[in-house]
Write a structure and sequence with these properties.
mainly alpha
Length: 194
Amino acid sequence: MALPFTAEQRDAIRERLLSSARRHALDPGFKKTSLDMLTAEAGISKSSFYKFFDSKELLFLQISREWEEQILHAATDALQKAQNRSDKERAAAMVMAAFETIHELGIIRFLCEDLPQIVAAIPSENARAHCLSSAQQIFAALSSAQIHFAVPDSVALSVIQLMYLSILHIDQIGETFFSALRVLVSSACEQLVC
């Protein structure tokens, strides 16, 4: 009979599972990552996996939450650093920091393609408890920072989502992508922010 894991072993295995999921989320992606791949890297059996996570989807949801926290932290940090600037400039700094962090993490494809599938596959109570999408989090953070919009909130959120989706085309646009995105973000904030 197998002995139960010690607390230290449990922590180490959980971190190995998370680390493996982070790598596989980037390449080859959620759908092409098997439970066998994850458990082999963590050094546990498939049956032991369920002592740590109820499903592969919930494991990937956990790393998604971590990444979303990093994005939000970068965005709120940029907002704080720009506190003596106009609301339009503060909003633009925040949105750009979020997009730059998404790019630096290399998670664009994961957020746009894999995450919706993961959320759709998990029980509804877990899906409801899941963090907001990055675009919605950016919008919520702008609202929390007392940034007021000259258009309905639904329009402001849609503009952020449109810019968010533009990141999918970073390779086609090439090296001028972030310069162009800065122009879009700045122009949008001029129009959207009171």
